[in-house]
Design a protein that fits this description.
Helix content: 55-70%
Low-confidence stretches: none
Largest sheet: 3 strands, antiparallel
Mean pLDDT: 78
């Protein structure tokens, strides 16, 4: 690819970038994708690090943009009238059953609040902590966030928090506090022997 290269598009999805590259290659426009590996490594959350750039020669830029517009369509907003016309045009023929409108979600399907999520994870951390005791440190953190955090907490999460509280308090008073006290005693004894 001789000449100056320009970026004509950026994609968050690898599949969209490959569709665009295939369309440009079908139109005999040399093209390359930059940053594809970083996209896979960093994921889709950080656009600066993960955007896949579509790069062509400067002299092919106008033709490439036309091909991409034909492939992906324009980004002009659709008006209410156009949407209504499309809906009327898409009316099902007679005899074709229409799908039922979606029912409103139940209370159980409502998204969990932050405190509910902490309570759920604390309960799971306590449960799995019996197999992997290191998780109990995490369970203590989650328990205190769920118990004293901001926002509402559901009755179901209160029950999970109550179930998680006994093992958490047992862990705090039997393991963590004696460990900290022994650490302090050994540290004081070491310092006393060192400087005493």
């Amino acid at each position: 690819m001789a000449g100056k290269l320009v970026t004509i598009a950026q994609f968050d999805q690898s599949s969209d970038a490959h569709i665009a590259r295939s369309a440009l290659e079908a139109a005999n426009i040399p093209v390359t994708l930059n940053n594809e590996e970083s996209s896979t490594l960093f994921g889709q959350g950080t656009n600066v690090l993960s955007a896949i750039r579509l790069v062509v020669r400067e002299e092919d830029e106008a033709a490439a943009v036309r091909v991409l517009d034909a492939t992906f369509g324009s980004e002009e907003p659709v008006t209410e009238e156009e949407l209504a016309a499309q809906a009327v045009a898409a009316e099902p023929e007679d005899g074709v059953p229409q799908s039922a409108p979606p029912e409103p979600p139940d209370e159980a399907e409502q998204p969990l609040s932050e405190r509910d999520e902490y309570a759920r994870r604390a309960w799971l951390a306590v449960f799995f902590g019996f197999a992997m005791p290191i998780l109990w440190f995490y369970a203590v953190y989650l328990f205190f966030n769920a118990a004293f955090g901001d926002g509402p907490i559901s009755d179901r999460s209160k029950k999970k928090l109550f179930v998680a509280s006994s093992p958490v308090f047992l862990f705090v008073f039997v393991v963590m506090i004696p460990f900290v006290l022994l650490y302090l005693l050994f540290s004081i004894g070491f310092l006393w022997g060192l400087f005493g």
